[in-house]
Specification:
- By secondary structure, the protein is an alpha/beta fold.
- It folds into four domains: 73 residues, no CATH class; 267 residues, P-loop containing nucleotide triphosphate hydrolases (Rossmann fold), CATH 3.40.50; 218 residues, P-loop containing nucleotide triphosphate hydrolases (Rossmann fold), CATH 3.40.50.300; 203 residues, 3-Layer(aba) Sandwich (Rossmann fold).
- The chain starts with a helix and ends in an 11-residue tail after the last strand.
């Protein structure tokens, strides 16, 4: 294959040499023959007279003298032969030259504009013409003017350097635009891409070609950002070189001929300078690009860009707006430049090419075009691979695996980030079954981007691949932390299994343990920066976990997809680049910042509904532009979801949905519905913010300190916690085995407490709403050892009862407050547990007196600042800023640190007080 490519290169080089040789023949045939004749006649004395005097200045006498010379017949015969040879060769020269140009510059490459201008179809781009017409030239000094075409090599053959003259910008534009239209009209739409850069103009760079700008055929670059163009070209060269080296080829031309396909389009980069020397760094980069460009199918057209290129370069130096000197014809021949093609015709031709290119791409592609013909047929053992969009009709894939383990997605509001995520998830879910792919989806925005993937009131279907869906969690950073903890636990589980089977990656583990369940896990965290919004324990722990998962997750098939409007300003990652270094797959939506590398500005110019896909850590040469179809409109994704749901719903559980905007309902919560009679009752206070749908509960054994305090003045949340604790305990006690004693000195809350008492009574328990709390406390305290059933004291607003509790009746040694302290200290061991609501920490301290905090083993704090809670949390610093609908829970027997919980929604009919 290599020898054939060498032979082809030699044929092309020979053809160009023949063109140049034929031009030389045209210019020098007569001169060369005449010189040979004069050399032969040098020995003759007559030649001296001919040279000295000249035939045209001869008198009749001198001519007669020469005619009498013995050698005259031979001399004049020889001169006649020279003239004959000159004219004979000149007659053949132009014809031979025309034949060569026509052969090497077929069709639009050399013909005058006609029907071919803007023609669509044609050459598929596997081979390219060797020459492209720029004008014509006439040989001077002959009676009959002899004119021939002047054509230049481009594309695979040579770069072109144009030097302008004063006031010739219009002529230069005409030359360039003529060449570009010849190239565009020669090949089928999509086979050529034009890149335009002009140091002196923001716009109006060849404006007649602008109809192409709505396609990939034309790209314009900021005049101050030459590096953007050079980076893109350099990346293309590296990519083509890597592809060619793998296949054993050294150029794109060899790859095209070997495969018989146009694997990459031709690229023509037009750079307009101003005659001034480029910055040294830009000049060096331009030279590097030019050196490898031709082998990668890139041709540079440089206008007034002073630089020396160590590669094949043709030159065209303008004398004025009509004439130039060409390196193809030499300095002794002037080229008459072709006039610019009519502007209107060029605009219409560019429009036709653009329309044909759009039509070839199939027009706007739909989400359904991303999906395979059969669902769930792919294996995720090695990687996840699926298309997310289209470029020039070809699918653009995202690959998540060992080489690109984690994904960073950026895009400002309205850029299509959510739509891209739906395209990504849908394309993956269609190709891989839930046994191959497990999704954990979290959205920190104040929105419900992923809510539709879980069952709802209007649509009972769900995405079977989804195991966890979290929405409206912008204030529940703890839920994101819970997800990271779950992934870290799963990572340890998989690592242990891999060690057991003596393997190092997921693919080998699945091979060695075919009976195990080892799907690839993809965790999508939208607006992930909210995880690190505070300088607290959540940020510190989340940072540590995220770095560990990012570093070790790749080998065990656990992948992160981190999306954000802007990743700037995340203090948690200053000096800790581990996460971003592992996110080698970067996806930038239009106008996204800081997602790609600092010098890669491809997202700035990306059109709407597009994304820049980059598997090379954001470096420019890895850019792939993709049009992302509409995947988030009504009924688009749902159609796929219903197909998947109907196929897999019987074999896979519905996903866990966490919606931070909704309170859990106690009667519907699994932890409550699963409660049964037991001798070890557990009071449920709220929902844990965890991956599992778990409740936060307090065991109430007969042990010291097993009392519960609700702290804060948030009435609704306090009533909810008291209610759920009482009802969950009632469900675990047999009828008649427990007494509930309720006290509420807060008038506004009495109706709610009264209704709870009625509910408890209806469930077969004794529930008494007492008016005389001191008397009842004294009675229970004095009879602790003789009680025959469990007692639960539900004390609402204990702080409001303190004055009554402090009062002593005549003859009493202890007040009601003293006896309450006795119950808090000794009651739990006798089956008497107190669940009390104190509206301030100070009042709780007054209630406990000098007994310390040991008698309150569990508490749930509402609108109380964290620094007030330290005495009740074993002296540790408590980071807590109150927020509506949330409580901070701590159980000294089971917790190392407090956790945030969500109080249950109180049943309809109960007043909030």
């Amino acid at each position: 294959m290599g020898s054939k490519a060498s032979e082809q290169r030699n044929r092309v080089t020979t053809a160009l040499d023949r063109v140049r040789h034929q031009i030389g023949l045209v210019l020098g045939a007569a001169a060369g023959t005449r010189q040979a004749a004069e050399a032969e006649l040098a020995k003759l004395e007559l030649e001296q007279h001919i040279v000295r005097v000249g035939m045209n200045n001869s008198t009749s006498e001198q001519y007669a003298e020469w005619a009498r010379h013995p050698a005259s017949t031979e001399v004049f015969g020889l001169l006649s032969s020279v003239r004959g040879q000159f004219y004979a060769e000149w007659e053949a020269g132009p014809n031979a030259l025309r034949e060569l140009v026509a052969h090497n510059a077929p069709g639009p490459a050399s013909q005058q504009p006609g029907n071919w201008l803007g023609r669509v179809g044609g050459n598929p781009g596997i081979t390219a013409p060797g020459l492209w017409r720029v004008g014509s030239a006439t040989v001077p000094g002959t009676d009959v003017p002899r004119t021939f075409d002047v054509a230049m090599p481009l594309l695979d053959e040579s770069h072109l350097f144009i030097t302008s003259a004063p006031k010739t910008r219009t002529a230069v534009d005409g030359i360039v635009q003529n060449l570009l239209m010849r190239v565009l009209s020669t090949f089928e739409p999509g086979a050529v891409r034009i890149h335009l850069w002009d140091v002196g103009q923001l716009t109006a760079i060849l404006p007649d070609l602008y109809p192409l700008s709505r396609t990939s055929a034309l790209t314009l670059y900021d005049p101050g950002r030459l590096e953007d163009l050079l980076d893109e070209l350099a990346g293309h060269i590296r990519r083509i070189h890597a592809t060619g080296m793998q296949a054993g080829h050294t150029s794109l031309r060899e790859i095209r001929r070997a495969s018989g396909q146009r694997v990459e389009p031709f690229r023509v980069a037009v750079l307009y300078g101003n005659g001034e020397t480029l910055e040294p760094e830009r000049a060096r980069e331009l030279k590097r690009v030019a050196t490898g460009a031709l082998a990668a199918g890139i041709c540079l057209i440089l206008i007034d860009v002073p630089t020396m290129l160590s590669t094949s370069v043709e030159t065209l130096s303008l004398l004025d707006d009509r004439r130039a000197i060409s390196s193809m014809t030499g300095p002794d021949l002037t080229v008459d430049l072709d006039p610019p093609m009519p502007s209107g015709q060029v605009i219409r031709a560019a429009g036709r090419i653009a329309e044909a290119l759009i039509a070839k791409q199939g027009g706007p592609r739909a989400f359904a075009d991303l999906l395979p013909t059969e669902l769930g047929k792919e294996s995720s053992a090695r990687e996840l691979r699926a298309p997310v969009g289209f470029f020039e009709g070809e699918a653009v894939e995202v690959v998540i695996g060992d080489a690109s383990p984690h994904v960073l997605i950026g895009g400002p509001s309205g850029s299509g980030k959510t739509n891209f995520l739906y395209s990504l998830l849908g394309s993956f879910a269609a190709r891989y079954s839930p046994d191959e792919l497990a999704l954990y989806l979290l959205d920190f925005k104040e929105g419900v981007s992923f809510a539709g993937l879980a069952p709802g009131r209007r649509d009972a279907s769900w995405l079977p691949h989804a195991k966890l869906i979290g929405v409206n969690v912008n204030t529940d950073r703890e839920f994101g932390l819970a997800l990271l903890r779950y992934l870290a636990d799963e990572l340890r589980r998989r690592s242990a299994a891999a060690k057991l089977h003596e393997v190092t990656n997921l693919a080998d583990l699945r091979e060695q343990d075919p009976g195990g369940h080892w799907p690839r896990i993809v965790a999508v965290i939208d607006e992930f920066q909210y995880l690190f919004a505070g300088r607290d324990g959540v940020t510190a722990t989340a940072t540590q976990l995220l770095e560990d998962i990012a570093r070790r997750g790749r080998s065990q098939g656990i992948h992160l997809v981190l999306a954000s409007q802007d990743v700037a300003g995340i203090e948690a990652f200053w000096g800790k680049p581990a996460v971003f270094e592992q996110c080698t797959l970067r996806i930038a939506m239009p106008k996204a910042r800081r997602v790609l590398s600092e010098t890669n500005n491809a997202a700035v110019s990306a059109p709407k509904w597009h994304a820049v896909i980059n598997h090379d850590s954001g470096v420019a040469h890895g850019n792939q532009l993709a049009h992302v179809p509409d995947a988030s409109s009504k009924d688009v994704f749902n159609k796929l979801q219903h197909r998947l749901w109907e196929r897999y719903s019987e074999s896979f559980k519905r996903p866990r949905l966490f919606d931070g905007a909704h309170f859990p309902v106690l009667e519907q919560f699994p932890a409550f519905t699963d409660l049964k009679l037991t001798s070890k009752p557990r009071a449920l206070l709220g929902q844990s913010i965890d991956v599992d749908e778990a409740a936060c509960g307090v065991d109430l054994p007969k042990a010291p300190g097993r009392n519960i305090a609700v702290l804060g003045a948030a009435t609704a949340e306090a009533l909810s916690i008291m209610d759920s604790a009482a009802r969950s305990l009632a469900k675990q006690h047999a009828e008649g085995s427990v007494d509930f004693v309720l006290s509420c000195p807060i008038d506004a809350s009495v109706p709610a407490v009264q209704e709870l008492a009625e509910r408890l009574e209806a469930e077969g328990h004794r529930a008494e709403l007492v008016d005389d709390l001191p008397g009842r406390v004294i009675d229970i305290a004095e009879n602790l050892s003789s009680l025959d059933r469990a007692q639960v004291l539900l004390l609402y607003g204990v702080d409001a009862s303190i004055p009554a509790l402090e009062a002593k009746a005549p003859g009493q040694l202890k007040s009601g407050l003293d006896q309450l302290r006795v119950l808090l200290k000794q009651g739990p061991t006798h089956g008497v547990h107190t669940i009390g609501w104190w509206r301030s920490i100070a009042r709780l301290k007054d209630t406990l007196g000098f007994a310390g905090t040991d008698d309150i083993g569990t508490w749930a704090a509402l609108d109380v600042q964290g620094n007030e809670l330290s005495p009740f949390a074993a002296g540790q610093v408590v980071h807590w800023s109150p927020r509506p609908g949330r409580a901070l829970f701590f159980d000294r027997t089971t917790h190392g640190a407090p956790e945030v919980i969500i109080p249950f929604q109180r049943p309809e009919g109960l007043l909030d007080g």
